[in-house]
Amino acid sequence: MSETYITHKTISDYADAKINLKQEEVKKYREQVNRLRDNLKTYIDENTNYDLVKMLGAGSVAKGTALKTLNDMDVAVYIKSGEHTVSESGLLTWLQERLQDAYKGKNISPEQITINHHCVTISFKGTGLDVDVSPVICDDCTSDYGYLIKKTTGERVLTNIPLHLKFIRTRKARQPHHYRQVIRLLKWWVRNLKKNDDNFRFKSFLIELLCAHLADNGQVMNDYVQAMEAFFIYIIKSQLQERIYFTDNYRASDLPAKSSAVIEIFDPVNSQNNIVASYTDADRIAIVEAAQDALDAINEARFATTQERAVNCWRRIFGPTFNI
User: Fold this and answer.
1) 3-class secondary-structure state, position 319
2) What digits encode the pLDDT tens for the residues 31-90?
3) Other beta carbons within 10 Å of 115
4) Is residue 323 part of a domain?
5) 177 φ, ψ (degrees, to nearest 5)
6) Same domain, yes or no, for 49 and 70?
7) Which residues, other chains included, contact 270 with Cβ-Cβ below 8 Å and sequence gap of 6+?
8) Which end of the chain is more exposed for a tag (fewer CB within 10 A), N or C?
9) Confidence category of residue 116, pLDDT binned at 50, 70, 90
10) Distance CA 267, CA 276 (A)
11) Helices (H), the chain
12) Virtual torsion, Cα 229, 230, 235, 236, nearest 10 deg
C-alpha cells in the first residue's frame, strides 16, 4: 500500500523544502515595506490633497500564507479626504504620482511604479519584489473600515484589513500551524495549474475562504493528505454551487438576495461583496474538473505499488519539483 510512500510527513517535508517562505526572507521583505511606508508617510505629510491615517500590511505575508515563490506584498494605505481632494476615479493616478515623487532620486524610476486593478505597484529591482499599494478611503477614520476603489469602474468596495487578518488568525489559533499550511499547499496546487493554463481562475482568497468553510464545519487539518482530499471532495460534491458566508462580522440576514452570479462566496468583512461575482460557469467547471483530477491523483497514489508511481501521481498536483 502506497500510504507508506506519500504520508502527512512526506507532504510536510516537501512544504518545508519547496513551498514555505522562510523567515529570513519575510524579514527582508518587511524591511522593504517599512522603507516604503517611511518614504510615503514623509511625502504625504507634506501635502494637503489627502491625509495619511495609517498604513497596514495585508496579503499573504501578513496572513502567514505566503509561498516561497512570493514576488509581491500588499500594503493598505488608509487615507481621508484633505482640503483639495482629487476625485475617487483619479485616486490611483494621484497615488502613482505621489509615489513617483516620493521615490524621486532614490533609484526607483517612474516606470517602476504602475497602476493595476485597485492598487499602485512598485517594482523593486534589487529584491525582485513588487509591492502593491492599495489606497483605502476611510470616511469614518475612527474605524478600520474603508473603501477600495476599482480602477475600471470607480466602484467602492468596503474592506477592513485588521478584521481580515483576525478572521484567518482565529482559525489558525484553533488549528495552529496546520490550517495555514494547508492553505499554502493548495495555493501551490493552483500555482501549478496556472503555469499550464493562463486562463485558469482560482484566486488565493477563494482558497482561504473554502478552507475556512471546511474548518468551521469540523474539518481537521493535521493530516495534509486527508485535508487536501477533503478540500477536493468538497468542490466536487458541491460543484461550487453552495452559498458560502461567515458570521464573524455580520448576520446571515445581512446578505443580499440570490443573484445571477454563478458562484456565491462572500467576503467575511463585507456581506455585500461576493468575491467571485465575475467568475463564469466555464471558470466554475474548470475548478471542479481540476479538483477531480487532483482527487484522482491522490487515490491513484494511495494504491500505487511503487514509490515512483506514487510520486508521479503527486506531481500532477504539485508539479515536477515534488519528490521524496
Assistant:
1) coil
2) 877 888 777 777 767 765 556 677 788 888 889 898 988 777 888 888 876 544 556 667
3) 13
4) no
5) 70, -50
6) yes
7) 157, 158, 159, 160
8) N
9) confident
10) 10
11) 8-14, 23-45, 59-63, 91-102, 161-174, 178-196, 204-216, 224-238, 281-302, 307-318
12) 70
